[in-house]
Design a protein that fits this description.
- There is one protein chain.
- This protein has seven helices and nine strands.
- With 213 residues, the chain is of the alpha+beta class.
- The strands form two sheets. Strands 2-1-5-4-3-8-9 form a seven-stranded mixed beta sheet, with helices on both faces. A two-stranded antiparallel sheet has the order 6-7.
Amino acid sequence: MATAVGKQFPNLNVDAMDAKAITFKVNVLEEAINNKKKVLLFWYPKDFTFVCPTELHAFQAALGEFEKRNTIVIGASCDTPEVHSAWLNTPKNHGGIQGITYPLIADSNRNLSSILGILDITAEEFDEATQTIQVEGDNVTYRATYLLDEDGLVFHEGINHMPVGRNINEYLRLIDAYSHVQQNGEVCPANWQEGDVAMKANAEGTAEYLAVH
């Protein structure tokens, strides 16, 4: 599976649903370029499951912080728009995601997730008897996360296995760090946070930083 980092995100229109349960087409690459914004795209395995709603609500709670950083948040799974609609209309205290306001991609044909290589497929075998491809694995996505810059270039990707939820603050930190690099031409050392000292991208800069830290 090749990395997407340093490359433009796939140029593909996919189905999505907004908070009003209206289905539309979205192109993640165009969202970045046309709006001159960064994009955080996060994939989760399935609607109506366990860890997934905790992540969707956590991204919603931090939506204002992403907006301050000129960043669009988009969720995604391989569920259909109809299943997204049902989950969006299910109250939080019943395991639902009512109140989520960012769009959710419905990649039910698995076109985009296949290009990204993030599906849980352990093996594929052609069945001569049925003339079909038999898939081993759940054929749903891992918890994959992509950060795009304003030109649609991926500057971060990460993949968690299904049982492990994400730390939303780390994505805010990564956006801060990348924005610092864009604006100042410096590089950000380990554990860098907004307001910390960064480094010049040369041997002298490394020596100066390590001498103090």
